[in-house]
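Question (not urgent): is this output format expected?
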Amino acid sequence: NCVYDFFELTTLNMAQQGGYAVAALVGQMNEVDKAITSVTKVVDAPKAAVDSFADNIYKNATKVGKSASEYASAVEQWASAGYNLKQSTALAKDSVMGAFVGNVDVNDMVKYMAVPLNAFRKQGLKSKDVINAMNEVANKNAIEMDDLGQAYSKAGASVASTGTNFSQLTGMVTAAQEGTRAGGDVIGRAI
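Got this back:
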């Protein structure tokens, strides 16, 4: 009788755990569907392009080590900034990868990259240039990618209008952070 009760309890427990797993999976799929819907509301793209994006979202997110909903959120942010679906997808890959490398929130990384990309567009600055500069400087100096990004988002547009280039801005921010430890937000506003 005791063995029968144990078997019944174990079976019930397994069924309950299976139900929780299905509920979690459905919840995640709903989150991804919402994210895809958000992207399609923002971007003006042919149905075939949107379908391709939706079909490849899990594969693309996995390539950069993030969940599909995080990746879709980055695509949506880039599309909201005025980029088409193809550009937004490429920029999202770069920003998600940068967020992973720099241990920075994905949405923050999009913000950190968007300002310098727009401000230094005429100088030919590309998304990989921003990520590479942030990573290299953070690895070689006493500054975090988060501080660089905060400073870029605060000072990028103003500095670019003075003729200063992206490398010079990065140098100013790095020197100020190493000298003061004030943080990217404060340094960016000061510049």
